[in-house]
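Quick one, probably user error.
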């Protein structure tokens, strides 16, 4: 079977594969006119919903309103790869800005966050197909292997004593990736079904008494006001939890760049196909390429695999239903078959894309401006499934401190709190920069694969510098 046969029946878009089994949710009622609350949360993804959850748990009398433009889980929280893991964007920069000890505290908090999500999901009866298999990242070229070893040591130096380094044979005992020469594994990770988590969370917060309005786009956030076409909600605290869609809000066009990530999901694999691959531990799987991939073995035994397609659309445009270009689907399929040659010809059931938010310095942040009552959390780049939970607990502490209901906490002193960064460049510089960066990463990967040298391509370092990543 050729790759075009494999994609003949592929569903393209439909928000994401994760909705294919459950169907898209029936939306909740929109806002019905002007209203007031104690806290307004804009955005019904993990950040907004976790924040509502923790605030309501801490202060059950708070009147909390969530305003969501479409339906909860419409954004990245309903489209991601389901890696619940301890990575946080910007940690190394925070170490440079605030000292190593502060960054180690942030990392430790992230490690605990993986446990926290698993714990709360269990406690609240959110059945999200969570499997704690850890995270396995593989190297397939000499250059990737040296990066892998350096990465492994770097992570251990942040206190991950339980991280393990594997050679080719031990890697194959876990997952048989063609040409894998080594891997690093951390137990601080789990696989999950993103939609089951986000729709479960929305139901939990509603049960706790949070008001959730869907089909309610916020057009502007002002101090103590969230403005929508159906009315304005006034509250002492307004929290922006809009991640990759932030550019659509008035005055926020250059705040966080909406970066695309795309995925495919195969048909369920047969027992014979799994026997050739292994992957019994259901680790989440990634690699050390500059234009990296990420994958999971789903609860129903498919492979869901993602990577960067068309990274960015001119003018910070965001997509709507997740439709993905044919060239991107082909490129992801190529990675799938390069990793697992025995799967050549396997059917792709679904392809989709989503947007994530990228700040100019690639550092995730949680902020509450005490003079205006405006708060926000995001800029997670590609690591938000766990980070959103830590961000939400931190927003809770900031709001409770600001309203005099609590004091400072361990979380309010983490180095990512109240971090400010400049905006992205205007177009066309923004578009040209991001296109150039990803073209350079792909060229660097090709060069490394061809050269067989153990050194990272200088091209990738140039792209990192241009992008402001390091
Ligand atoms: C394809 C893909 C794969 C990914 N894989 C992983 C992974 O495996 N592991 C990982 O850690 N991270 C991953 N991520 C990132 C992760 O999914 C996100 O960081 C996380 O979901 C962000 O959650 P959020 O609530 O901040 O944003 P979102 O989930 O995007 O939620 C924002 C919400 O705000 C709503 N909204 C936006 N603007 C408005 C407005 N003006 N008015 C009202 N509502 C508004 C949107 O509709 C949306 O529902 C991936 C992202 C993508 C796109």
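Nope, works fine. Designed sequence:
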């Amino acid at each position: 079977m050729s790759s075009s046969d494999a994609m003949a029946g592929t569903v393209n878009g439909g928000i994401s594969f994760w909705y294919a089994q459950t169907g898209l949710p029936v939306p909740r009622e929109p806002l019905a006119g002007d209203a007031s609350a104690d806290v307004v949360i804009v955005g019904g993804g993990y950040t907004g919903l976790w924040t509502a959850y923790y605030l309501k748990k801490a202060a059950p009398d708070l009147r909390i309103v969530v305003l969501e433009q479409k339906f909860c889980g419409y954004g990245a929280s309903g489209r991601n790869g389901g890696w619940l893991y301890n990575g946080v964007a910007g940690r190394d920069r925070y170490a440079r800005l605030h000292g190593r000890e502060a960054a180690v505290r942030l990392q430790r908090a992230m490690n605990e966050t993986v446990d926290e999500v698993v714990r709360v999901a269990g406690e609240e009866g959110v059945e999200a197909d969570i499997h704690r298999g850890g995270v396995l990242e593989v190297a397939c070229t000499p250059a990737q292997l040296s990066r892998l070893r350096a990465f492994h040591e770097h992570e251990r130096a942040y206190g991950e004593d339980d991280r393990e380094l594997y050679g080719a044979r031990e890697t194959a005992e876990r997952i048989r990736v063609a040409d894998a020469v080594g891997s690093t594994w951390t137990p601080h990770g789990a696989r999950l079904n993103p939609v089951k988590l986000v729709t479960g969370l929305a139901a939990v917060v509603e049960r706790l008494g949070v008001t959730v309005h869907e089909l309610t786009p916020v057009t502007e956030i002002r101090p103590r006001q969230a403005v929508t076409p159906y009315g304005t909600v006034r509250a002492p605290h307004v929290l922006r939890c809009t991640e990759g869609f932030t550019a659509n809000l008035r005055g926020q066009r250059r705040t966080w760049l909406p970066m695309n990530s795309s995925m495919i999901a195969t048909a369920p694999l047969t027992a014979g196909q799994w026997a050739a691959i292994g992957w019994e531990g259901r680790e989440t799987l990634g690699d050390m390429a500059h234009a990296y991939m990420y994958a999971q073995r789903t609860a129903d035994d498919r492979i869901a695999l993602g990577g960067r397609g068309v990274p960015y659309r001119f003018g910070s445009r965001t997509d709507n239903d997740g439709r993905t270009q044919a060239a991107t689907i082909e490129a992801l399929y190529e990675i799938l078959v390069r990793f697992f040659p025995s799967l050549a010809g396997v059917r792709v059931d679904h392809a989709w894309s989503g947007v994530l938010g990228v700040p100019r310095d690639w550092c995730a942040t949680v902020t509450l401006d005490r003079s205006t009552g405006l708060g926000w959390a995001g800029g997670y780049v590609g690591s938000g499934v766990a980070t959103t939970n830590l961000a939400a607990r931190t927003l809770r502490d900031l709001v409770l401190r600001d309203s005099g209901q609590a004091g400072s906490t361990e979380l309010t002193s983490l180095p990512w709190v109240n971090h400010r960064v400049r905006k992205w460049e205007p177009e066309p510089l923004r578009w040209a920069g991001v296109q150039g960066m990803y073209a350079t990463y792909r060229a660097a990967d090709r060069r490394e694969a061809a050269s067989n040298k153990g050194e990272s391509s200088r091209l990738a370092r140039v792209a990192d510098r241009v992008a402001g990543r390091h």
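The two ends are 43 Å apart (CA to CA).
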